[in-house]
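Sequence in, structure out. First:
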Amino acid sequence: MQNNIDRTNPKAKVFIVWLIILSSFILFTALTSVLFLADYSISMPPMFIVSTALIVLSSIALHISNMKFKMLQFKAHKRYMWLTAVLGLLFLTVQLIAWHTMVEHGAASSANYNAIVYILVIAHSLHVMMGLLILLYTIFSLNGTPHQRIGNRVKMTTIFWQFIGFLWLYLYFLFLILL
């Protein structure tokens, strides 16, 4: 009986999301520590400004979505969830364009530490893709009147997506300083 309770405990699920975030933070901290050791011959593409604006707008859209959810405005909540997903997809698209620009300027060169920038962008993109899948799963699970389980799913999705936004801001400002 206790095992069944643990699997359905919403607090345990939120805790697992926080553990995933902590693990991801440790990974990115370790990867970014290498950036301080290198001398870079690449510059940051201007498209990163656009992608940064997109991820910030997606975080704002998700925040508004959560406000609508708490006010029991479920149609508006779902629309803002879709807006968040579209902005996230645009973010990924712009990241690919920016990465292509970086590759053209030698970012994938194995002769120096420039490859770490490639690894960071790809790792973050994988996190964004996972976040988009979670976001879409949450959107499709909204059927009429939400209940506690949907509310917890929305909460976990929000925590992870906001982490993705924070993580990109961390990487963006680090790139600004070091590249």
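Second:
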Amino acid sequence: MKKRLLLTYATRPLGIRVANLMAPDFEVLAATAEDIPSVFIDKYIPCPAVQSASYVHEMLTLALDHHVAYILPLGLKEIAALGRSMALFEEYGIQVLCPDMEILPSLSILSNPPKALPLHLMANGKDLLEQGLAGPSISNGLGVFSDSGEEFLLTAIQD
């Protein structure tokens, strides 16, 4: 049985690309805080806006209601908000796939990587998309590695 992954900003081009990339290995639940056209209402799950005072708790409720194993926030503000609360999610067996808050300010951000660049979804230092180990530079998050493999560029939507 595939593990469930809640993906935010799923209506954006990056979200669609990531959802398609992950579909073979995960049951991807596409979520968005943006308005959903009525023709797509069955395809997307509404999620709270990051500006909400109760954003973290609403995301936890959403994740528990849908029995997800992972949350992949694509928005930079979502990454910051959920990253500060990773321990709360871990108490419920949910892993938030974003970098540790200590290293987030030092990471370069790539908002829309070219399709020619392979994306890497890191969880505890392991690439969930390639099923291989990567360098020690990043433990969690979506991004691309530099040509040398020494630098990780975080892929996020500048929200």
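Remark: The chain has a mean pLDDT of 91.
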